[in-house]
Every structure is written in structure tokens, then in C-alpha cells.
Amino acid sequence: MDKLKFYEYYSFIPVPDKLKDDLLDSEEQPLTKLENLSHINIFLGTNNSGKSRIIREIIRKEITPVFINKETQKKLSSVILNTKTTLQQWMITKCKQHWVHLSEILITNNFVLRSGSYLFSIPEYDKLFNARISIIDQNKNMEELLKKLKTNTFDHLEVTGATSMGLAEEFSTQYKNIFIVYLQPLKELLSELLFKENFYRIYIPSQRSLKTLFAKADIELNIAQQYDFELKDLSDHPDSYNNPNGIIIETGQSFYDDILEHLTTGHKNRAKVLDYEQFLSKNFFEGVRVDLIPYTKKVKELHIKIGDEKEQAIYNLGDGLQMLIIMTWPFFNFENGIIAIEEPELFIHPGLQKKLIEIFATHKKAQNFIFFISTHSNHIVDAIHNSKNISTFTVRKKFEMFFEL
User: Fold this and answer.
1) pTM (global) more than 0.70
2) CB-based contacts of 49: which residues, under 8 Å, 6+ apart?
């Protein structure tokens, strides 16, 4: 799976179906998409304002975020401009040759040239680069246009008023010649423009702990049923199934299994654990060595050894440290994805709340993830002002079942 560096992309998410009638903008108009997304997206609001509901809907499998590469977009704009300029110059030259009055020439963004009573328009090009058409549809239109160029067929090439001037056939031929030059680089850039690979969808609910509360499968199934989630897998549940597009629920209950599996399934996975131990040491334990040790006999539990301290069960750590481990392990365990976190501030010291946001914003492993966070914490809000690539959204409940974003 390719890595998705979200900071290189402009992204937006279509408003989930379950929220289409509930999300309003500041002018009380229905929202069609959540725009101006960043690497970290924080939703603020009072209790019962709807912010947690929004982030839960965002990570559902039917929601397809659009990630547009910023650098590729610049290159694409340059090629489009060159294509447009070349076509316009040829059209103007032809107008001059046929004594078309030039003072009234108007060339629009939709590739329409109007001169007096003559109208030249290029519907295929308009379909491809009209600003009102989504980037997804532009990709589809690109494929259609390429097929037309190969077969030399255009359904409705319009050169209104040009037939009597003998320009229609010449216009069509030149149109094709110009586009052949530019369409291949356009196609290549469009293929690079969008990130199309699958990515993980990870939900970290407010109910989380490294203490063994119930069977992991039962907890995940309960949360999935509560929010109508389809889980990615639940192999240890009697009604086991596997859904590659489903949601991974991280409550901390699977941390023992994750570490045990990584330490016993090859060098690459063992290296992940070593990398994570070094991360914990540097960020939360003042640089002293940290070892994670899964025990498999008698009682299955995960121990932690911190420097010269006595080894202990990991659930004996303070609740705040347990929360930090649960929220940071996913971007070591997975390659990329969307992580939705409810109230990351729970049980965490104010200074470490700021530290957590800093880690999300700057750590190299976290760069391949996009975060959606609901919070009440002023300390997290304060951390926003010191970090880049963070967007904030204020959610207000206007009236029953309607939310203003």
C-alpha cells in the first residue's frame, strides 16, 4: 500500500448521507462537502452539539475523501493554460484570415469564442475543465476524450456560424492536432493528481483502556452495533467475518495481541515494536529505555519495563499514559489512513495534551494519516495556534437534528 502524505494534498470530503439533511453552513444552507481539510481537523462544540457524530460518519466506508496533490495541481494548471492559449491563438488567427471583426472577440473559461454573429465552442473541452465539474468527473471525461481522439469522432463539435466560412472541418482537424500534443501530459498529470489507494479507517472511541475489561471482540461488536459500523475484521468472535473496507476500532483491548503478533512474525514487524519503544522513550519517558514484554503462560498480559524500574503490567501505568499509547500506536501499526478520535484529552495532563497534538502534527509516522478529532479541551485549542496544517470547525446545534458547521 502506497503511503499518503496528507500534507501534500488539498482534500475535501463529501458530506455523509446520514448528515446531508442535518449539516448547515453559517447561512443555514445545506452543506455538500467539508472543505479546507488539513492534516489535523479539530471539531469544537458544547456537549451534544453533534461533533462526535460528525467524525464517526466521516470514517464510514461509503465516504470517499478526495485528496488532490497540490504540486501536481500546479503543473496541471500550467498545461491547461498552454493548451488554451494555443487553441485561442489559432482561433484568432483564423478569424483574422476570414475578416471576422476582432473588436468583439470574447474567449471565456469554457472555451467559447464569440465574434460578432459567429460562435465557436468546444463542448468536449468544456466538459473536461469546466470549474463546475468535479475532479472525479474530469478523470472520466478525460478517458472519453481520449477515445474520441483515437477514433476521430466527436459527438457534437459545435462551430456555430463557421460552416459558411468553410471553417468547420479545419477547426475540427486543428482541434484534434492541438489536443494530441497536450492530452498525454494531461492524462499523466490527472493520474497523479488523486490518491486512489485504499487506506485504513480507524476509530478511537472515548471508551478506551489497556486494562482488560471484556473480551476484545465483544467490546468492538458492541460499539459497532451502537454506531452501525461495519468492522474490518472480528476473527476471534463466534460470528467472525472479514470486511477489507470496514472500520478498525482501537480501544486498547487489542494492544497485547498486536505486540505479541509483531514480535513473533518476522524482522519487519519486530522492528515496528522497537521503533515504537524508542518513540515512547523519547516522548513520554525522558529518554530512558522502554521494553514491551508480552507474557503467554498462565495469565496473558503485556508488561512494560521503564529504565531501571521494576517491570510491571502495562495496565498499571497511569490512565493518561495508557490513553497516549492507545492513540499513538495506530500510526506505527498501520501504513496510512483516517483516524477519528473522540476526546483525546481524557485523563491526560494539559502539557501532554499539547504534546500529543504536536506529535500528530510533526512526527514522521503520523504524516501518512489524517486526523479528525472532537474535543472540549482548551489546552488542545491552545496547541492549535503553535502548529501548522490544522483546521478547526465549530459545531453548533441550531435546533433539533440540525447542526451548523
Assistant:
1) yes
2) 395, 396, 397, 403
